[in-house]
Structures are given as structure tokens and as C-alpha cells.
Amino acid sequence: MTAFRTRGHPAATAAVAAMVRGHMPHAILLVGPRGIGKTTLATDIAAGLLCTDPDPAARPCGRCRGCRLVASGGHADVHRLDPEGAGRQVVIGGPGSSARGVRDLILEFALTPVEGGARVAIVTAADRMNEDAQAALLKTLEEPAAGVTLILCADVEDPILPTIRSRSARILLGPVATRDIETLLTEAGTADPPLAARLARIAGGRPGMAMAWARRPEVLVMREQLSRTILDLTEARPAERLAAMRSALPVAAAVADVADVADDPGMTTGNVKRRGRGPTLAVSSADGGDEDDGTAAAPARASAAQRRRSVEAIVTVWTDVARDLAVVGRGLASSARDIGLLDESRRLAERLDPDAVVAFLDRLGRATTLLAGNVSPELVLDDLVLTWPRPTTGL
User: Fold this and answer.
1) Alpha helices by DSSP H, the chain
2) Burial label, 109 (beta-carbon count in 10 A; 0-12, 13-18, 19+)
3) Which of 32, 135, 145 has its CA nearest to residue 91?
4) d(C-alpha 260, C-alpha 338), whole Å
5) pTM above 0.85?
6) C-alpha angle 312/316/321, rounded to 5°?
7) For a tag site, which of 231, 241, 272, 274 has the least CB within 10 Å?
8) Residue 274 dihedral angles phi and psi, to the nearest 5°
9) pLDDT digits (tens, 9 = 90+) for 294-326
10) Which one-letter DSSP state was computed for residue 98?
């Protein structure tokens, strides 16, 4: 028996186990939504390659020095590359660059393994590699170094060059069953059964997201607050909508912090390296507005990276809210994810044009693409705020 930490992906873990026992490709592309478990599976692959158990069928064993070092994030032969900067990109990097990038990985590949075994590189957001970074990486894949395995984790694969994809073994990770996520949460002791059931539904098949919420219950309350703000926007005038979402940015920043660790259920907020973060967003009063005239205060001292992350979090929560409105409006309330907001969603869905909600879901999808392409997050957010459907009845 192997000691995979990955749960809910039997086909993927079986494929990885076969690779560990037999031939390991030079590059592996793991594709799936954020929080689905890509980084956890990448860590399992690294542990399998660096495990010292004499029986290949038992790797990773979870007990040897190699497995323990990989699990703790301290193995010298595992090199991790994360996105950096305002655009949260994976850059080319290298000597003279202020940001760590692909060239730094290439230089590390040339070194002798510290532990005397394989070397593993994990790119946690391969879909965020810019063109220069991808070109540098392609050269490495064309002439791979001996004993090196590159693991690319991507939410979507379209931004990755076809030539990189063609040189990588591709593993797709789909949604995990709700019951499996519940079991994961309860076995880990991070949530009691009722909370585990709720989180498993909200997570939408992403165990990493469910685990992240379970570890930060106070931010789960903030997520619900953000969802209610989005629901309330339908009744508001344009100026009120814009002011309300500006005031919600600090809440969204906290939600974004939780999402940063969602792709690896085995990680905690405390041991994740911070990347390109600016100071926390601030507003002038407790409710986010100016007490004299009721207008929203502008965010203070927020970096470009922080603003983008906050808007990305809003779009993610907004997508969940709109999805629930769409399924409830079609008479499928049992399929709603956030059962805590089911009554509010049901009342509002009765007054909204269901086709308009579905069209808005498409708009949210385009917003996600625009944010990944470095379009101004403020412009993206304002567009969503002003085009969010209004009730067609009861006005």
C-alpha cells in the first residue's frame, strides 16, 4: 500500500503509481480547477520519486526520510516555482532578476542532487507562465536533464504552448464526490459532520477549497457576507452597487488569502510562502463607508497584486452565487451549493429572469479570463456590478 495524500482521484493516483513503479516521464501536466488537489498530487509524485523504500510498489511509503522531507516542504531536491508580482505571473527570472523564475529552475537542474536521488520541480501555476518563461522551459523539455521530473500544475491548459503540452504526460483532475470530501474533512478532524457536509457542497468538488475553509471558519463567515452583498446588489441603484462592492474589497482580500492554500489540502495558512502581497486593504470606518455622506471609502495602500487577488475572489464567489440562482430558478434547489443561503436564493430566483442569470454566468467566465490576462481588475469589477441582472417582478 502506498501513502498517497491525494483523495478522490483514483484514476490519477493509479496512473502516478504506475509511473513510479515503471517509467517516469520528464514532464507531467496536471490540469484541474483551483483547489482540486493538483499540488497535493504533485507532492505525492515527488514523494514517490524520492522515497527510499526498497519496494517500488510501496512508494511513496510516507515513513522514510525522503517522504517526510517532501511532506514537510524541506526536501532539498524538490524545487517549487510560484507566480509573483502584480500580475501573479511565472516569469523567466534568472541572474540579475528580482523575481525567481524558470531560468532559476534550469540552473538548479544542473546541480548534483543533495540526497543522491531524483530532482523534482513543481510549477504551481503553469498557466500563468508568460511567453518568455514558456520559451525558456520549452528548451529544457527538448533536451531534458537526466533524473529530472518537471510537474506543471494548471487550472486550465489553453495558455500553455502546444509544444509544451505535447511533451508532457497529461493528467486531468475532475470534481471529487461530495461524500468523499465530507470524509476527508471529518477524518482530518477539521470539521464536525454538519459543517463538513456544508463545506463539501460549497467546495463544488474541490477538496482543497473545503479544507481551506474548515481551517479558517471566521473567513467562511466573511464569504457568506460577501455572498449576501452580491445578492443585495440586485435591488440597488448603479451608484449604490459600485459603492457596495468597493466596501466589500477588504472582505474579498480575506477570502483570497484562504484561496491561496486551497490547492493543497495538506498545507496550512501558516506554512505557505507569501507571494507579492501588498498591505491589507483598509477602509475609513467599520462599515466601509464615510459616516458623513454614506459614500464608500477608497481602498488604502493596496498593491496591484492585492487588488487583483481581491477581485478574483469576488468573481469566484459571485460565480457560486449566480450558479445557485440559476439552478434554483430551474427548480433544482437540491443542487444548490450554499444551503445556508438557500431561502434567500429561492426568493430572489423567483424574481429574476433565469436566462439573464445564465448569460451573466458566461460573463463571469469571461471576467476570469480577462483577469488572467492582466486587464484592470477595477474595470472588470465595475462591468460585473453594472450588468448584474435586476429583478423583473416586485419592483
Assistant:
1) 10-21, 38-50, 65-72, 102-109, 131-142, 162-166, 178-188, 193-203, 207-215, 217-232, 238-247, 249-259, 304-329, 342-349, 354-372, 377-387
2) middle
3) 135
4) 21
5) no
6) 140
7) 274
8) -75, 140
9) 333 444 456 877 888 899 999 999 999 999 999
10) S
